[in-house]
Amino acid sequence: MAENILRKLVNNSQMAIDDGVYDIDVDLQKSNKDFIQITKTNPHATLLTEVKFSSPSLGKIRTLTDPVRIATQMISGGSKGLSVLTQPHLFNGSPEYFVKIRQAVDVPLLMKDIIIDKIQIDAAKKMGADFMLLIQSIFDKGHLSEIDEYIGYGHKNGLQVLLEVHTKQEFHNALKTDADLIGINNRNLDTLEIELKTTETILSGEEKSRLILSESGIETPEDIQYLKKSGADAFLIGSSIMKSDNIEEQVKKLVNAY
Predict the structure, then answer these.
(1) What CATH number should be reported for the domain holding residue 167?
(2) What is the domain range of residue 212?
């Protein structure tokens, strides 16, 4: 099982690339706000909330509805940035949603995808993304070799890089790079199981030289308080907000965790 999910995600991206999903014909500007600066000065919990309709672990999360409406509700609730899924396979995402949201809101946006090719980074720039996601284990497990090259290419294109890790070793590897922000995924991509303690375990005894975003499995203000105490600076929250009947209120509640 272990390698299969990651390999499947990589294959899905290759399929999407082959299908021309990332042949983008727009030239949008990114936000003039800086998520990292916002995080450093925000007195409340800084949320990067995620617009996603499906996931490999949960299947369908929410009926496909207007992504812009969801995005604006999240921002009204106090979200400081949005993560928007552009991966069509398993996540029901699309660059088209990203473009619609970018045209409607001015907060920083993360292009959330499994990046395995520079054509995806080109797409991120054209769509006005502020951040792109790279996953450390894709490089560590040999699916791709040159992490510094990908980060450099992102930076050259004006993108900040969120580098995602799940183990202490990956965290140490990530710190050797020029990634702008390190994400700790509480979900194991090999098994899809979530363990909130992952953030605490990885940060325990570590010097923090980069802002830390804790991702996955965050549902309550108590979860946020615990993760903050463990050393997280900001929080990526998707499913628990997307499943909510009142997105704006749910975001507000989590933002006011502290």
Answers:
(1) 3.20.20.70
(2) 2-255
